[in-house]
Write a structure and sequence with these properties.
The complex is a heterodimer of chains A (about 290) and B (about 325). By secondary structure, chain A is mainly α. Chain A is built from ten helices and two strands, in the order H-H-H-H-E-E-H-H-H-H-H-H. Chain A has helices at about 5-35, 45-60, 65-90, 95-120, 140-165, 165-175, 185-210, 220-235, 240-260, 260-280, and strands at about 130-135, 135-140. A two-stranded antiparallel sheet of chain A has the order 1-2. In chain A, helix 2 packs across helix 8, helix 3 packs antiparallel against helix 7 (about 185-210) and helix 8 (about 220-235) runs parallel beside helix 10 (about 260-280). Chain A is globular. The model of chain A has no long low-confidence stretch (mean pLDDT about 85). With about 325 residues, chain B is mainly α. Chain B has a single domain (about 5-320), classed as ABC transporter involved in vitamin B12 uptake, BtuC (Orthogonal Bundle), CATH 1.10.3470. Chain B contains 16 helices and two strands. In chain B, strands 1-2 form a two-stranded antiparallel ribbon. In chain B, helix 9 packs across helix 11 (about 210-235). The longest helix of chain B has 27 residues, at about 210-235. The termini of chain B are close together. Classes of the chains: A mainly alpha (about 290), B mainly alpha (about 325). The interface of A and B includes residues 91, 107, 119, 120 and 271 of A.
Chain lengths: ~290, ~325
């Protein structure tokens, strides 16, 4: 009797690596939600735009990959600021559901924009990473790098929020939106900084994803739903909750996908999400007082 | 309700519509009218609950169940689509209750409700894709031809080669949806839901059973959407997980309604007409060469509408007139 299934272990490890990426993506979305109180449904589409930006600058302009990565991160950060300034700012006082839907409009817009410019074909930057063999387990090098970079980025974001003045202001705003202007904090500026940070995190995720996935206009749709379900399950705005939820989701997808088929992994993750909403609507870390 | 009070105008519009197939329009324009009415029916069903603060991003689930149940039952077991529609409706009602009850009982509202229903839409889409041995997965599915030799129409297989028949079926369903809208407006249910959408606790304190009231409208809206899925599958004679379920169609419903205006009876239909007209105009103007240009303009317009005209085109227009 097989006691120790090597492929199951591989699925668990791959789930762990996927969890790092999901954690990075949901961190940006969560940050924006916690501070500005708006869910960007199109968050994964920002990441997709970043992937196309990297593809464009590396493959079509012939820039070195490192420069393309920096361009991607800066570009998506700027896109995040533009998103806040032109789309979110006008609806800040509107009904929450309108704020949600307006970002849905941006989702269609960005998806169509890259389709018009780049077409619907699959693109890749032509970088293929080797696999790493640990014993009998093969791990993709790209995933391993992605995981490590994501962890470093999450740690850096954590330090930024806790050790710097601007970070403290950001956390303060997410705790009490109405008091902070009275304390002399420029809310608008903090919102813009947060949007830029959220964008930069999406740009970073784009850098990590172009190494392992092909780029196509629907790639945002395959990461978007899962990203905001992670945030909601962690408790919207709760960064630690989102971090934990990302790993739970990734395990469900990876192990469930291994045991059955990849779609069933996602089905399990979504059903688990719905069930968790009924059991713990405020997120997994919420304690009833 | 300014549009209802002007009964004459509505009557004239309806009469013109009834005559549409006999005006020598040709097959393609008739197809567009049928699609507009069918989408109008589905959007109106969505708006029944959407306008009362229950914004569901999961109606693609019900549409998908309707479309796939009838085609699968017909193809696998030869169950006539009208009987299959009954099965689909029962499934839909059960699903709406299973999701709706805990949502309303535990007060999951606003964008939490939207996200739970969104997950539901994705579950249905993924299940369809995952069971590709029977459903054909992402390739979609075609109902087996059920017209006996020489026959142009068969109620048994619910297939009609003549578009005019489809036109009247869809028209009848659309009128039914408007009738339901009006009935809901005249009933206590509407007042109760209005009260709930403004303040749930206050509504409960005056004796409204919040959970049951919300469930009623949800089941009604879901069942009608499911039937819309049945019609869609039978009319198009092709279903695909991405066009009848999942996030795409669910968001499209919401946006169509928002563009038209969800607080007036003809708003959702207007949204459907507007979207179709936009697609057609862009197609004629720029052709099919540039993939995605129509969606680009569509997305930009949506953002514009939500920021500038939260009441939709028809809603804003009617408001300006009064």
């Amino acid at each position: 009797m097989e006691f120790f299934d090597i492929f199951l272990l591989e699925a668990v490890l791959n789930g762990l690596l996927l969890g790092g990426l999901l954690a990075l993506l949901s961190l940006g979305l969560n940050l924006i939600f916690g501070v500005i109180d708006v869910v960007w449904i199109c968050y994964a589409e920002l990441m997709m735009v970043g992937m196309y930006a990297i593809y464009w600058s590396h493959t079509m302009l012939g820039l070195p990959l490192a420069v393309a990565f920096i361009l991607g991160i800066v570009g998506v950060a700027a896109l995040g600021m533009a998103m806040h300034w032109f789309i979110i700012r006008p609806v800040l006082s509107a009904e929450p559901i309108n704020q949600l839907l307006v970002t849905g409009g941006v989702l269609f817009f960005l998806q169509a924009l890259v389709t018009v410019i780049f077409g619907i074909d699959f693109k890749n930057i032509g970088v293929r990473m080797p696999s790493l063999m640990v014993g009998d387990i093969s791990l993709s090098m790209a995933r391993l790098i992605a995981f490590c970079v994501a962890m470093v980025a999450i740690a850096a974001t954590y330090l930024f929020l806790n050790r710097t003045f601007v970070g403290t202001a950001i956390r303060a705003i997410s705790q009490d939106r109405s008091i902070m202007p009275l304390m002399g904090v420029n809310t608008e500026r903090i919102y813009l900084i947060t949007s830029a940070m959220g964008g930069a995190l999406a740009g970073l995720a784009a850098c990590l994803l172009v190494l392992q996935y092909d780029i196509h206009p629907a790639i945002g749709l395959s990461f978007g739903p899962i990203t905001f379900l992670v945030c909601v399950m962690g408790g919207l705005g709760n960064l630690l909750g989102g971090f934990i939820a990302a790993f739970i989701f990734a395990q469900l997808i990876s192990v469930g996908g291994y045991v059955y088929a990849i779609e069933w992994g996602y089905v399990m993750a979504f059903v688990f999400f719905i069930a968790m909403m009924f059991i713990r609507p405020e997120g997994i870390l919420f304690r009833r007082r | 309700m300014p549009l209802i009070s002007s009964n004459y105008k509505f009557g004239a519009l309806l009469a013109a519509l009834m005559l549409a197939p006999w005006l020598g329009l040709g097959s393609y324009p008739l197809h567009l009218i049928i699609m507009a009415l069918l989408m109008g029916f589905i959007y109106t069903s969505w708006a029944l609950m959407g306008r009362l603060g229950l914004v569901s991003l999961g109606h693609g689930a019900f549409l998908g169940i309707g479309a796939y149940s009838v085609v699968l039952l017909w193809n696998q077991y030869g169950v006539p689509p009208l009987a299959g529609a009954l099965v689909a409706l029962v499934l839909t009602v059960i699903l709406a209750l299973v999701i709706g009850y805990p949502c309303f009982r535990f007060k999951i509202v606003g964008h939490y409700f939207a996200l739970v229903t969104l997950a539901l839409a994705e579950v249905v889409r993924l299940v369809i894709v995952a069971t590709r041995e029977v459903t054909g997965g992402s390739l979609g599915l075609t109902p087996k031809p059920g017209l006996p030799n020489e026959a142009a129409a068969s109620l048994w297989s619910f297939q009609f080669s003549n578009r005019v028949v489809w036109f009247y079926i869809v028209l009848a369903c659309w009128l039914f949806a408007l009738w339901v809208w009006r009935k809901v407006d005249q009933s206590m249910l509407r007042d109760a839901l209005q009260a709930i959408s403004e303040d749930e606790d206050a509504a409960a304190s005056i004796g409204i059973n919040v959970t049951r009231t919300k469930l009623k409208i949800t089941v009604l809206s879901a069942a009608m959407t499911c039937f819309g899925g049945v019609l869609y599958a039978q009319y198009q004679a092709y279903v695909n997980p991405d066009t009848v379920s999942g996030i795409g169609i669910s968001l499209q419903m919401v946006f169509g309604v928002i563009a038209g205006g969800m607080f007036v009876m003809l708003g959702p239909t207007f949204g459907a007409v507007f979207l179709l007209a936009l697609q057609e105009v862009l197609r004629v103007l720029i052709g099919n060469q540039i993939h995605g240009l129509d969606l680009l303009i569509y997305g930009a317009l949506l953002v514009f509408f939500i920021i500038r005209m939260p009441k939709g085109i028809l809603g804003s227009w009617l408001e300006r007139k009064t």
